[in-house]
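ingest -> fold -> write
write: protein_1
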Amino acid sequence: MNLFNFQFLWIELIAFAVLFVAFAHQLYYYVRYLGGILRQNQRIKKNKISFSTAKPPISVIIAAKDEEENLRDFLPKVLEQNYPEFEVIVINDASSDETNTILDQFKEKYPNLRTTFVPHGTKNISTKKLAITLGIKAAKHDILLFTDADCYPESENWMAQMVRNFNSETDFVLAYGAYLPKNGFLNRLITYDTLFIAMQYLGMAVAGKPYMGVGRNLAYRKEFFFKLKGFSSNLDILSGDDDLLVNKGSTTQNTAVEISKESVTLSEPKKRFKDWYYQKMRHLSSSVRYREITKMRLFAEPFTRGLFYLSLILAIVFGSLITLATAIFLFLARLTAQLIVINKTARLYDKRRYYFLLPVLDILLPLINLYIMTFEKQKKVRWK
C-alpha cells in the first residue's frame, strides 16, 4: 500500500467514525428532546398527566407599540375567551399611530380591558421590558398570561388550556407560539424554524431541562416575577423579556408544558428576509446569557449536525463501496427520524408538514445562526 492510498484509508476511517458518532448523537437528540412533545401527548392520552380543574382569575398582559391594525383584528380574540374571570391589560408603548384610539373604543365594549402606557421619550434600551413590568404591576391577579399584539389565540379555550397546568408548585407554563403559513420560501423557512425551536424548548422542558419560553405564549406567577427581581439582570439588552426570565427561574419542579392544539397562539410572520433576519439577531443575542449547561446542550445539536454532514461528504468522496453504502444508509435513517418526529409534531398542532424541503432547511438554518452569532452584533434600536 503506497502512502497516497494509506492517507485515503485514514480519511475514510476517521470520516466513518465521526459520521457514526454524530449520527448517534443526532438520533439521541431527536428521541430525547425533539420528540418530547410527542411523548407528552402519549402521557396525556394514558392519563399520566393530571390537570387542575380550578379556574382562578388571571391577568393577560400585552405590550403594544404602533399596533393599531393588529389590535383591531386580534385583540377581540383575547377579550372574548371562554374563561370565567380575567382581565386584559394592554400597555401602549409610546405608539405614534392610533393605538390609543383603538384601545379607548374597545374599553367601551369590553369592561375587562384595562390600559396603561409608557410615556413618549422614555430612554430605555428595551421599553418593552418596561411596558411589561408596568402591566405586571397593574395586574390584579397572580397568574399572568402573556402574548403579543400581533398574536391571537387559535382557540377560545386558550386561557383555560394554559391555566389548567397551574398547581401549588407551578411558576411557569410554556406553550407553542406559531406563525401563520403563507406562500413562499421565506415563510416556510420561518414556520420551520419556529416549529423546530418550539420542539426544542418544549421537549427539553418535558425532559426536565427547561431553559426558555416565548413571550407570544407564556404564563407565570406575578409573585415569582418579583421574586426573580423582574428583568433587572438583563436591562442592558434589547431582548430577553421572555427566554432569559424563564432561563433564570425555571426548574424541573416549577415548569409545566402545555401542548394541546387549543393552547397555540398564531402570529403574523415577517414578509421580508431582512426583517426576519433582524428578528433572529435579537433573539439570538440573549442566548449568550443562558445557563452554561443550557448553552452546552444547545451547542451540541448544531455541532454534531455539522459534523454529520461534513463526515458524510468525506465518506462519500473518499470511502469504499461499503463505506459509501453505510453513509447513505445513516443519512436516510436520520432523515427518516426527522420526517417522523417533525411531521408528527406538526400534525399534532395541525400545522404545515415538511418533506423534500427538510434537508435544505436542516442545512441552511444552522448556517444562518452561525453567521449571526459569529459576525453580527445586536443593534441598539427600539423594539417594534
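write: protein_2
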Amino acid sequence: MHDSKNIMIVLSSPSGAGKTTITKKIQQKFNSFRISVSHTTRKPRPNEIDGVDYNFVSHDQFKKLINDNKFYEYASIFDNYYGTSKESVDKLLKTNDLIFDIDWQGTKQLSKFPNLKLIKIYITTKNKSDLKKRLLKRNQDSHSEVEKRLKSFDQDIKHWSDYDYIIINENLENCFKQVENIIFNNKKKLFSLE
C-alpha cells in the first residue's frame, strides 16, 4: 500500500523535450527518488543497460505479463510496448519517492488506481518546430522516426488537461527549478497532514 510520506511524480513529454534529463537531475538532487523502470519490447540503445534504463523483454514475455495482470499501466508506442510493473512500484514505494517517465496513455491508466497519489507534470517545448530542432540535434532517430514523433506531438497536446502542471522547457535550469518547487511544495503538504 502507498506510504503517505512518499510522493509519486509522473513526468511526461514529447520525445526530445528534456524529460529524461530532468528525471536524472531529480535523482541527483533528491536521494529519496527512484525511477520506476519500465518494461519495454524495444531494442536497447547503445548506452542503455537492462534493468537500469528499462527491463528489456520480448513481445511474447510482455503479452504474458499483460495477461497475468502484472502492470499498473502499459501502452503501445511507436510499434513497441512499455509498461509499469505493479510489483516493482509497490516495493519501491515502501521506502522511496518515485518518478514515472511515461506518456499520456500510461498516465491515464495509472490515474485509475486511487492508492497511487500522483503528481502529474507535463514538460513540453514552446512549439513543434523547437521540438523538431531538438530531435534532429540529439541525432538518435531516423528521419521517419523524427516525423513520427512530431506527429504524436499534436496527439499529446490534447491530453494536457490530464496533468496537474504544464512546464515549457525553454531553459533546462529554469525547467528543473519549477519541477523542484513542485516537489518541495507537495512534500511540505504531506508532512503538514500529520
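write: annotation protein_2
The chain has a mean pLDDT of 86.
The beta strands are 8-12, 33-35, 39-40, 55-56, 71-77, 80-85, 97-101, 118-124, 165-168.
pipeline exit 0
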